[in-house]
Amino acid sequence: MFASASPVTRAIVLASALALAVPAAGCSWFRNPATGEKSLLWISRDQEKQWGRQVYDELEKKPGFLPPDSPEQQRLERVTRRVIAASGAGDDWEYNIRVLRSDAVNAMAAPGGFVFATGGLMKMTSGDDDELAGVMAHEIGHVAAKHAAFQMQKALLLQGVTVGAALLASTLKNERSREAAEAGAAVSAVAAQFLLLKFSREDEYQADKLGVDYAYRAGYNPEGLVTFFRKLEKQEPGGGAGGIPAFFSTHPPTPDRIGKVQEEIRRVRRKRADQPRMNTDKHR
Ligand SMILES: [Zn+2]
Hints:
- The protein is mainly α.
- β4 (107-110) and β5 form a beta hairpin.
- It contains 13 helices and 5 strands.
- The protein starts with 6 loop residues before the first helix and ends in a 13-residue tail after the last helix.
- It has helices spanning 7-19, 45-61, 71-87, 119-124, 129-144, 147-159, 161-173, 177-186, 189-195, 201-217, 224-234, 247-250, 255-271; strands at residues 28-31, 38-41, 96-100, 107-110, 114-118.
- The protein has one domain.
- The strands form 2 sheets. Strands 3-5-4 form a 3-stranded mixed sheet, with helices on both faces. A two-stranded antiparallel sheet has the order 1-2.
């Protein structure tokens, strides 16, 4: 129903969705697993879950999910659940993991344990679980560090709900307006806003760092993320489809980024050399 809504309308819809989070019921200190720093989080678990559920429900309608018994869905669940188990973030949520019907190459994690990968990503990493594990471990890194919840909180704190709508609208008018318009045409408002949510460089670095560690502990080769980045480099930037933006657009595989990931792989291998890892199923 929001397919033809203007960016302003969509921003207002998002603001109303975020407004659900305003009564600060569950204010608590959260320790970032990547940095060890503590920050005050006043978004409650229920609010995170509520937002994630709303995104999930909208994406289920458009573009939809592959059936639970499809090979892509089964592979995604097997790999992602192994990464979650190794991460230690597994007890926090009942995870919902689904493959989106989209040829775009992307993966994303909504708050509250709702995790998605596209059919395009499954195809691109086909036959290489280390690559899929690398990407999903990066996403679980965002979940473990609660990046989406803090983004949501920041938007509310800095802008206020009413002003927030106007600011979001003006943001949409800028560099991401074309993408937002396309996404809005294919998925509905809250989902479109979630898909275009941009984490800071620091958040991305933290997710890379946590992801390398989780993939390694899960028994995968953490180089998988690097080989995936190499494949992305060869892809046309911005190759989104069906309202789903491309991983490339929010995660540019810059030489600097790849270098940092490789450095992290060496560090994790040294640090965890004597520790047991999970055995991955080699029947791929
Ligand atoms: Zn990311």
